[in-house]
């Protein structure tokens, strides 16, 4: 987790450099669309800094007051990112409205668009890298940061293409329209991030593919037990908590039942990296004849 926080710190540095380029492009041209693009990069800097501290805190692990760890703090950083995006979108709409009723010709459009293009290429490479790392390490903070950077790339491409059309046609009002479109685009991106992060805060269950893998692993590794039922899962950042009841024959010794639990837990940790497994062992009179059947029961 400490290694992941370095990515967030690097992201803040990249975002600051991209912001400087986009701000220069906006100043050179006087374009409200390029200004809106630069405003989104300000959010990238803030969010990367927040993600850095969130990842550092989530690495602390469990303590007396947080016995399940600090993993969910990453979701808070993603929710904050969504909220900041909404604020930026409102600011963009305000500037776009003023510019629409008082359009101005762009200064040095070729130079400004070229500078913004360089910033967009840098963002594209970094956003793809962050998203890949966030998905691989199951880090909501890094994944959200990467997704936001990529959404910034899409809006930047739209800005560049739109302004090229505006410069060639002389449609000054197009600058304001493009800025408004950028605001709408990032507003939708913010909503998606907040929706996913709130799901994590609400203890959303593992995704269907992971859940199917968990059930298959339990059924394959619980030989000697009778069944497993009341399976519950919840995701918290890179960790998946797995809980279920394991029914064993009444004559089975505690040691034998413990061996089965160890075997299941080891297999689940291999199948679902970062799994935290809790198994409640029950005698056969507690069987519900439902849930996950073991090999011995299928035989």
TrEMBL record:
Keyword Cell membrane: yes
Localization of this protein: Cell membrane
Membrane topology note: Multi-pass membrane protein
Keywords: Cell membrane, Membrane, Transmembrane, Transmembrane helix, Transport
Residue span, Cation efflux protein cytoplasmic domain: 208-284
Molecular function terms, GO-annotated: cadmium ion transmembrane transporter activity; ferrous iron transmembrane transporter activity; zinc efflux antiporter activity
Keyword ATP-binding: no
Gene Ontology BP term (one): intracellular zinc ion homeostasis
Domain Cation efflux protein transmembrane, chain residue ranges per copy: 12-202
Pfam family, one: ZT_dimer
GO CC terms, sorted: plasma membrane
Residues passing through the membrane, by range: 12-35, 41-59, 71-93, 108-128, 149-171, 177-194
InterPro entries: Cation_efflux, Cation_efflux_CTD, Cation_efflux_CTD_sf, Cation_efflux_TM, Cation_efflux_TMD_sf, CDF_Transporter
PANTHER family: MITOCHONDRIAL METAL TRANSPORTER 1-RELATED
Record family assignment: Belongs to the cation diffusion facilitator (CDF) transporter (TC 2.A.4) family.
Protein name listed in UniProt: Protein p34
Organism expressing this protein natively: Rhodomicrobium vannielii (strain ATCC 17100 / DSM 162 / LMG 4299 / NCIMB 10020 / ATH 3.1.1)
């Amino acid at each position: 987790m400490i290694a992941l926080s370095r990515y967030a710190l690097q992201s803040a540095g990249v975002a600051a450099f991209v912001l400087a380029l986009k701000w220069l492009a906006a100043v050179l041209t006087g374009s409200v669309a390029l200004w809106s693009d630069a405003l989104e990069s300000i959010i990238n800097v803030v969010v990367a800094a927040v993600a850095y501290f969130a990842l550092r805190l989530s690495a602390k692990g469990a303590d007396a007051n947080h016995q399940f760890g600090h993993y969910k703090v990453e979701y808070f950083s993603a929710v904050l990112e969504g909220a900041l995006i909404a604020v930026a979108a409102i600011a963009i709409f305000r500037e776009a409205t003023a510019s629409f009723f008082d359009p101005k010709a762009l200064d040095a459009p070729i130079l400004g668009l070229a500078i913004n293009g360089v910033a967009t290429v840098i963002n594209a490479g970094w956003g793809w890298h962050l998203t890949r790392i966030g998905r691989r390490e199951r880090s909501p903070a890094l994944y959200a940061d990467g997704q936001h950077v990529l959404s910034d790339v899409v809006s930047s491409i739209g800005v560049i293409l739109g302004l090229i059309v505006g410069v060639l046609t002389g449609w000054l009002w197009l600058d304001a329209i493009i800025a408004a479109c950028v605001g709408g685009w990032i507003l939708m991106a913010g909503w998606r991030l907040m929706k996913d992060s709130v799901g994590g805060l609400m203890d959303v269950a593992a995704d269907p593919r992971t859940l199917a893998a968990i059930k298959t692993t339990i059924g394959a590794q619980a030989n000697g037990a009778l069944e497993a039922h009341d399976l519950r899962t919840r995701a918290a950042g890179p960790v998946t908590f797995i809980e279920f009841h394991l029914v064993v024959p009444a004559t089975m010794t505690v040691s034998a039942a413990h061996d089965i639990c160890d075997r299941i837990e080891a297999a689940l940790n291999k199948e679902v990296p970062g799994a935290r497994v809790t198994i409640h062992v029950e005698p056969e009179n507690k069987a519900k004849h439902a849930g996950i059947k073991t090999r011995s029961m299928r035989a």
